[in-house]
Amino acid sequence: MIRTFAELDLDPSLLEAIEAMGYERPTEVQAQTIPQALEARDILASAPTGTGKTAAFAIPAIQYLLDFPRKKAGPARVLILTPTRELAMQVAEQTKQLAANTHLKVATITGGVTYDTHADTLAQTQDIVVATPGRLMEYIEAERFDCRAIEWLILDEADRMLDMGFGPTVDRLSAECRWRKQTLLFSATLEGRGVEGFTADLLKNPAQIDAEPSLRERKKITQWYHRADSADHKLALLKHILTEQAQRSIVFLKTRERLAELRQQLDSAQITCSWIQGEMPQDRRNNAISRFKEGSVNILLATDVAARGIDLPDVSHVINYDMPRSADVYLHRIGRTARAGKKGIAISIVEAHDQPMMDRVARYTKELIKERFIDGMRPTHKKPVFKKKKKVKKDDKKKVVKKKTTKKK
Ligand code: AMP
Fold first, then answer.
1. Less packed terminus of the chain by CB within 10 Å, N or C?
2. Domain that holds residue 173
3. What is the pLDDT of residues 367-385, one digit of tens each?
4. Residue 55 CB–ligand 1 contact under 6 Å
């Protein structure tokens, strides 16, 4: 296994860019992916956001384009598909930085951008195009984008694309890119939700890469929870955490209504925050994100939908003001902190009805998530105990099945 970027036999211009970006050594997914991708293998990688997956595909793609330079001007040779436009913009940004010392051109095609802007982009020669599936398909149908020159097809956050209903579109795009040489697929999870069948159709004998953050890596996230007696108590706890403990926080809420309510409450308390929610005009969303990124605001309120795939660096605290709907989403949320070797804190503020989800999360992550208290804000209620649902006995199940089959006859 390689330990340094220097061992990868990369072009000096690429190595310089990697160094300029401050990447000292490859992350696990990079160390595993880059050599295999450069040996012309298809890649099937399980790598959640925060593992360095973007560079894991951008670095070999750039190296490939440098190894096999184009002979004449023409359409893009590497296509990167992402589920959301924010992710597309981030991926493009990182790829541009990595390609900064080369002549390679990187463009994005996403929704929320006027056709004219894209028309200019499409008229010029591009090497790498980062696109969202829906918008790209529109251009292909209108014969404004040509996939025949695509040599590498890269799918980022494939599970999210499936979740968002892009499966059929991606299949069609894959057919459009049938002349390609290599396919690289990255997904936070590879199990369930149809990911397996989907990947089988797209990839040829892929190298399987598993870069789930190791338990050791995950341990860098310290998790705990506070119990709240009421909505007011919950708000008081949050205000305390935001003003007394946290440096840079993302606060997760389950709906935009809940987000709007909290926004006003924080506003009244003169706690400055920015926010993102689903179906927000792109410029406003970008604005909110960049204010947070630049550090002019240190609190970002977000719904899960809005936060999908967005890379928000240097987050010290992830706060679950509303518990997520599943343990998997919990892991996604807390993955926003402790990026690339940093330490992070994940705090959940739970009411009685959230306790079963809190317990489920602890079982799922196989970690003990302890309760903590803040002086003067201790809950007065006892921690509720929920009994597990009674399981249907095996014998009963058999009976039911038997009954059904006899009925059919
Ligand atoms: P990603 O998983 O691609 O969203 O990357 C998460 C963050 O890690 C991004 O902010 C990257 O800039 C950063 N990153 C990627 N590769 C490295 C590396 N080898 N060393 C340090 N940071 C990295």
1. C
2. 5-210
3. 778 899 999 999 998 887 7
4. yes
